[in-house]
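Aim 2 progress update. The chain analyzed this quarter is reproduced below.
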Amino acid sequence: MNELMNIQKILEITQGELILPESLKQDRFDINSIMINGASQLDIASESEIAIFAPSSPKMTARLMAQAKASKAPLLLVKTFQADLNKPQIVVKNPILAILRVLEVIKPCSQPKSEIHPTAVIHESAKVGDNVTIGAYSVIDKGVVIENDVTIFSHVVIYPGVIVKKGTTIHAGAIIREEVEIGEGSYIQNGAVIGSDGFGYVQDEK
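Predicted structure tokens:
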């Protein structure tokens, strides 16, 4: 079940500034009446979901403005205050990043129990830290270093010499090629290939 969140909590997470349009100020709008338990697009958001207004072009501004005016979302994350919108707005530097941070709290990603599955293959020279999860059929090759609090789901292949910094999550099917260093707190999606050869080419002298 998603966590219910009030505006004050969202302000703490996003480090934004709450601005009310004049009409709501005159009505003595109670900001504590808004409780958020999810996020969605402007055109499909419900009365308990936050949405973002972040147009990337003048053409998109007109379309999103129409959606925002008709939206059921009770609260918007915006880059600049929109006086034409009769909704509470939280002004932030990056609305997309801000809504992702809110979602991390409202609906945190479930983590598997900390354990190493018996079918995982781990080279004897690999170093595995504390509170590490390694899923079924994953392969941890020679000289790999996995720091504390790392979650590796099933069928992940980590090549020789890789360093995985603490707090990283690697989802199922990902491949980490040799000598790559994964930074602290990284989040690698299913099937990603990190450190593979590029698709460019170089002509030889012939």
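DSSP finds four helices and 20 strands in the chain. The mean pLDDT is 91. These observations will guide the mutagenesis experiments scheduled for the next reporting period.
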